[in-house]
Design goal:
heterodimer, A: 179 residues, alpha+beta, two-stranded antiparallel ribbon, B: 121 residues, mainly alpha, two-stranded antiparallel sheet, coiled coil (chain B)
């Protein structure tokens, strides 16, 4: 990202600016994706925290429905309200008490929040650089258009002056014919 | 002359595609690396009495804390090595790609020159 500040945007022509603009906006999409993913993970953690709250000692031997498949459930009893298995990634699970698991998920939500904030920061920087590129691009396109219009006007004037010269030359030729 | 040019151009696009593939592969490796680092951090925070299980296929096996730590550390080593390899390969293909590009530019210049000669006549 810091490479872009090392050269001046004004030195680039509109084509290069356009490709830079596309690059920046594709990066922005990626950041946006990762931000939404982090928010999803955060809501997942809050859901697990909510379900952990139901694992209280008073709920021991309560009837539950355990899922076998997505549409098949099995009636059972809640026998363990003390320990849970938490997934820490790469196929590793750790047996913890309910309180430790709650602490673990609270810790994880903090980490995810911090990362989401970082991504937001880079997204804002990205937006700013995109704005800068856009303004320079617009200015250059406007300048080019002005040049083009100016050139067209010059050409029209030249054509007009040529026509005038032709008009002056023609009557002389006609007189010669009659002779 | 044009078919030679097309051949060289195709080579260039092949190099470009290879570089893209290697880069996506590298991103995968980096994400796996970060995940394993995370797991190791978590394992280090655990008390020695904690029970750790590992998912091997459809079975959940109990492993000791030290075993789990060793496993993850080995994985980190392997991933680090793989990352270095892919970075080197990316460098190599990038160099080849740049070389080809320069060759193509020189080739283009040669193609442009003979067109000027008949005009002079």
């Amino acid at each position: 990202m810091t490479n872009k500040s090392s050269f001046d945007l004004n030195n680039l022509n509109p084509l290069q600016l356009n490709s830079l603009k596309e690059q920046i906006s594709s990066e922005y999409q990626k950041y946006r994706q990762s931000y939404t993913q982090l928010l999803e993970i955060k809501s997942l953690y809050s859901n697990t925290l909510f379900s952990l709250e139901s694992l209280q000692p008073e709920n021991l031997n309560q009837p539950i429905l355990a899922p076998l498949t997505e549409s098949l459930y099995l009636p059972g009893k809640l026998t363990n309200v003390k320990s849970v298995l938490t997934d820490i990634g790469t196929n590793f699970f750790v047996e913890r008490s309910v309180e430790d698991a709650q602490e673990y998920f609270k810790r994880q939500t903090k980490i995810v929040e911090e990362k989401a904030q970082e991504v937001l920061k880079t997204m804002k920087q990205n937006e700013e650089s995109l704005k800068a590129v856009n303004t320079v691009l617009e200015r250059k396109v406007y300048q080019q258009q002005k040049k083009f219009v100016g050139q067209q006007q010059q050409q029209q004037q030249q054509q007009k002056s040529l026509k005038k010269i032709k008009k002056i030359n023609k009557p002389f030729k006609k007189k010669n014919l009659f002779f | 002359m044009n078919t030679d040019f097309e051949k060289e151009l195709r080579q260039l696009t092949i190099f470009q595609n290879e570089i893209k593939k290697l880069q996506t592969g590298q991103i995968d490796i980096v994400t796996k690396l970060n995940e394993s680092k995370f797991v190791l951090q978590e394992l280090k925070l655990l008390p020695k009495t904690a029970k750790v299980y590992q998912l091997v296929g459809p079975t959940l096996l109990e492993v000791t804390l030290n075993e789990a730590k060793e496993n993850v550390e080995n994985r980190l080593d392997l991933l680090g090595k793989e990352e270095k390899k892919t970075l080197e390969r990316i460098k190599e293909t990038q160099q080849k790609h740049d070389k080809k590009k320069n060759e193509l530019i020189a080739f283009q210049r040669k193609l442009m020159q003979p067109k000027n000669v008949p005009k002079k006549k």
